[in-house]
Amino acid sequence: MAVEKTGPLDLSSAAEESVRGRVWRDGKVVAEDFDFERISQYLAEENSLTWVDICDPDHARLQALAGELTLDPNAVEDAIAGSERAKATRYSTHTFITVYAVEVNRDAAPPSPVGSLKIRKVSAFVFPRGLITVRAEPGFDIDEVVRRWDDNSDLLQYGIGALVHGLLDEIVDEHFTAVQVLDDAMEDLEGNLFDERALTGEVQRATYRMRKDLVELRRIVLPMREVVNAVLRHRKDFHAPTELDPWYDDLYDHVLRASEWTESLRDMVTTIFETNLSMQDARLNDVMKKLTAWAAIIAVPTAITGYFGQNVPYPGFGKESGVVLSLGFIFAIALALYVTFRRKGWI
Question: Is the pLDDT score of 240 beyond 90?
Fold first, then answer.
């Protein structure tokens, strides 16, 4: 079946807005890059599956679309807002999903102190026969989601659940990649921790950067469990077939693994931070023991020369034997202290 090219996008009221879309029938693409005004028409067709992506949406244009599709005003505001918690909410005509994609800048990943996480918000309006994705910026690779749909085109026969699965699966895979990069950086941080040549300040800054990145990642990864659970519940409202259940079970398993991995890394970086403090205390204690030992040794000649420097008669006073006696005491006591401290490992 030939793909219908229905004309360029009408962006007269939102020149900066980027819109793309697809329509499937029986798992095959029948239309791409259709006019913005035809979105509601395709969503109403019984035997079609529609996807529309809106990047950097114009507020007025999105509000007009919301009125035409009876989108909940709260969901529309959440799609535009900059900081919303990852969630999935069921409304009377649609389900609204907000998730966050994450990318780690490998060149700036810890142990570098420079910020390494790039977080991008992706919202979606899920209808019985269509999916509208809204992105605030073009950083998220929506083309990778399209490739997933193409690679698993046989799933599209099961309806909207296949599109939602492909979107969430790409998001969760990015979470996995981010956790893997931070895990590798954690190993480098552990190596620097026990490297005597590593500067303590650098290890501390890298540990702090790692903890901050993991806190940000945790805020993104943990709510995904609730999102996937909510999608599974709401998918029943669309009378979705059970054939997709194994795919969603696998997706939920990946979400759990990413969450557990993130938690274990937070525990590990806390352990590294505490170990670094303990090692600093141990090094300081070792230095103090060495200083104390040498101070005790140096105190011996000071005490003896002070005694022999008295202006009172004493054995050997004014004689060469007094010099020999004082030097003998100095070397004998200092040597005894040195040997004792050496055996204890203080020197």
Answer: no
